[in-house]
Amino acid sequence: MNNSIQVMARDQLSQQEEKEVLRLLLTSFSAKFGTLHLKLDEQLDILVYLERKYSQQLAPVDYIAKKENKIVGLLTIAGTTNYPQKLAYPFELVKKYGFFTIAHYLLLLTALDYRSADKEQYIENIAVHEKCQKQGIAKELIEMAQANTKNGEKLKLLVSAKNTHAKRLYLKCGFSIVKRKRKVLLGFLVNEPNWLFMEWSR
């Protein structure tokens, strides 16, 4: 496919690369973040702020696909999650965008959060630039993550039950459905209450 795939810890990315990664996530999951009724640059501003000041994860690992030195695909393995006793209130964001907007945003990110078990790697995101879809990039990213999975470990992900395209891809890559989950909060926030846990093991 002539794509260069790099494996990098999130804290190794330059600020520009970090913004590119977060912008790709926002555009790829616009149906979810679009419920906030904010412009893309405003959503990016919030996400960058939260990523840098309030992230509870230690160094998530990004599999980054580049074409002509531009980020066109991303697969993120969630890092170890820390749960601090107290988080500082995001006064700056609330002042700029309003309490209910930020509360909605934080609820959405919390609803999508998952705590990995031992010998389990959680695929937090898979995203491909809209102009580069149907070129096998997502499959390449998944296969790279599988190749880096140790014996006895599992890869796990969560997908909307109605996302038939993604579900078909994961099944083709050897994942199986292990649990069906109804998430009331996600149903309220993004009108998608039915989700599937899928896993692949070496």
Name the features.
single chain; 202 residues; alpha+beta; seven-stranded mixed beta sheet; two-stranded antiparallel ribbon; 8 helices; 28% strand; globular
Explain this structure:
The chain has helices spanning about 15-30, 30-35, 40-55, 90-95, 100-110, 135-145, 165-170, 185-190; strands at about 5-10, 55-60, 60-65, 70-75, 80, 120-130, 155-160, 175-180, 195-200. With about 200 residues, the chain is of the alpha+beta class. The mean pLDDT is about 85.
Give the SSE map:
Layout: E1 4-9, H1 15-28, H2 30-33, H3 40-53, E2 57-58, E3 61-67, E4 70-77, E5 80-81, H4 91-97, H5 99-111, E6 120-128, H6 137-147, E7 154-160, H7 164-172, E8 176-182, H8 184-190, E9 194-201
Helix pairs in contact: 1-3, 4-5, 5-8
> What's the overall average pLDDT, rounded?
85
Q: Name the beta content range.
A: 25-35%
Number-wise, the strands total 9
Whole-number radius of gyration? 17 Å
Biggest sheet descriptor: 7 strands, mixed
Look at the helices and sheets and give the structural class.
alpha+beta
Which percent range fits the helix content?
A: 25-40%
Oligomer: single chain
Strand order of the largest sheet: 1-3-4-6-7-9-8
- How does the overall form come out from the CA principal axes? globular
Q: How far do the termini sit from each other? A: 25 Å
Summarize the structure.
This protein is of the alpha+beta class and about 200 residues long. Helix content is about 40%, strand content about 30%.
